[in-house]
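Input for the complex:
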Amino acid sequence: MQIYNTLTKTKEEFVPRDKGQVSMYVCGPTTYNFIHLGNARPLVFFDTVRRYFIYKGYQVNFVQNFTDVDDKIINRAREEKTDPLELAQKYIREFFADADALNVMRADTHPKVSEHIPEIIDLIKKLEQQGHAYAVDGDVYFAVRSFPAYGKLSGRSLEDMQAGARVEVDPRKKDPMDFALWKAAKPGEPSWDSPWGPGRPGWHIECSAMAEKYLGSGFDIHGGGFDLIFPHHENEIAQSEAACGEPFARYWMHNGFITVNQEKMSKSLGNFFLVREILAKFPPDVVRWYLLSTHYRSPLDFDDEKLVMAGKGLDRIKTALRLLYEAMELPVYQEEREKPVADGLEEKLATLRLEFEKAMEDDFNTALAISVFFELAKEINIFVGKLGGKVTSEEKKLLDKAHALVKDFNCVLGILKEDKMTGRLLIDAAGADDKLTEGLIQLIIKIRQEARSKKDWATADTIRDGLKELGIILEDTPQGVRWKKQG
RNA sequence: GGCGGCAUAGCCAAGUGGUAAGGCAGAGGACUGCAAAUCCUCCAUUCCCCAGUUCAAAUCUGGGUGCCGCCUCCA
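Predicted:
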């Protein structure tokens, strides 16, 4: 398994700290608003990473924090005249609503800053005792000059950064790049008691404290967006490694941005689209498919047209799956076929599994993995097309194997949900919402079939066109009529 | 100013030394009452430009052009 490590700027062979186990920490959102598509990319991508490790049989410990104490939350709460922690709590709930829709698994632990103040204070105390931090007027700063490796993740030196620094220099800091570990409380802000007086944690220290608590030093993978490399992750490394003298995280993974008209989607530019706005127009499986259709380190440009395209691609997979399920319902014949129909399919399925794994093991190349999924869909279509309305028991076994492979691909990519009772994947375009609709459609189909049997094509076509207007697609096959909702 | 990334068909997008995956769109064919779905075939002599290394380059080196990001909150 090869993983591109931001720390070394190369792909490295992944070796977990503990055999058979993977520890991951992915920076979660600051919960002062609904999440936008840019937030959804790391969510979906790292969820897919986690799913692949699970597929490979690893035991994964996945931690994703919530930053529920922060300037932006405080400001927003002031505007809305509510309590900051309540506001944060509300958006944590909203976060889960969106994440659940995108089929993102809940983390094993979702620690919150507000519930880890003692751990944070302990870490700051440790840094202060070791001379890596200093207090000024109730604030505590990290002394970047005390950590010689500062800049190793982002690949820049303190000199580089200061030359072009656009930061207002706080004269109380020993070095302009020193950053806050603890902020003295201002009136009306949430605060906690500390050795330096009442206050709250700085932005970076939380992740150091919580990652250490739940995963320990030298855990496997730390992930987030490219924009977190500096300063956030650089600072996490400084804090954690200065405090314990051991490597913090071993593999640093960063996803590229979602762009709009090739420009970064961001809250400050105001060109962002909320996940729920998009989900109002497109099904969640399409959004997820689209997010995974490009390699995670490349930028991904967003517009409606691209989601439409992704939807059409995913329809191909869904159609193959529908055909597969149809074939799995066919009666099993005992006698052999005169001409075998499944030539080489079993080997082909094995090859496709290997290709899929190879793609995922090359730095999680989901775009390539998806192309393997398309090949699988084609193989299924070819096979099912040759069955001619009946299967032998051998062929039935092959259908089950193909189904198992689809389920495995789907499970790693997290696209379609599974019906726990039947073990089948749910294809939303198929089937009716209720019994009445199903009955009505079946009745209409029956009437149309009667017209067709009398070669009354005008009536048959009127019905088909009329249903299409309503978003119901009819497909005539030798085995009967199939219907689905428009994708 | 410092640091970094990207440039592949109409569109999206893999591919980092061995002669251009896959998807969408498009064209033709099979199937069909006609469709739809599906299958088959076609659709980049070429990978931003120039020079170089090499038997061999989209892939490596140098130069150029264009776009983007980080250095300030941001996934």
